[in-house]
Design a protein that fits this description.
single chain; 4-stranded antiparallel β-sheet; 3-stranded antiparallel β-sheet
Length: about 260
Amino acid sequence: RDSALVRGLIVSSIRAALASKGMVSNTDMGRATVSNFRPMPQPAASHGGFAERQAAFDMNMPLSAPVDEAPLTEDYPLGAARAQFHDNYIVAQTKTGIVLVDQHAAHERLVYERLKRERSGQGIATQPLLVPQVVELDAIDVERLAGAQELLAQSGLVLEAFGDGAVLLREVPTALGSADVAGIIKDIADELAELGDTTAVDERINHVLATMACHNSVRSGRKLKPDEMNALLREMEATLRSGQCNHGRPTWARFSLAEID
């Protein structure tokens, strides 16, 4: 008799159940990783002298961003950052093991959730551009973006057609900072083409927000300072759904001391 009420109850119940698991990691990943460890082949014995062997022991091969071993004064779910390697992965120490975090995937989710919170509150905070930016595009993309002006405005992007081959961008979400706006606009045009006009407005807006978040997230290959790594961990702990990136992949994995041992 009231299908909208039933649907709303189901959706809200599922959303609440997923939100309650926001800080749960897939432990199967840790178990699978540990089970795949294999003995490393032993190098051939060296016949060098004592001084040569001593030099080998003294070699200092630090990770890309070593962090001082500060005591764990608080029991943070994601621990305290200890190092960054390959300029993309953070190693954090917890009281029961270690946590491995993909900094790009995690920050992408954080930016996305921030934009969604702003939209559901007072609206996405925007920053007017001092000089409107001209973004050159194919004529069909210009037409597609111009037709979605209202939807894009709800996403924090205020633009208008600028002739047949460009759009004029006047405002961008404050959360984007110094992101590559031209690249964002081009990707959003592609996104709108894939979604089509039959997709629900909310879903189209969320896709736009996810595209912007991906562009503005901490990129792979960026070295982070210890306080930046810890700030990322703390924000992840305070953000719902931070355990998965915008594409559904895990952003972190936990390895217990028992597994490591």
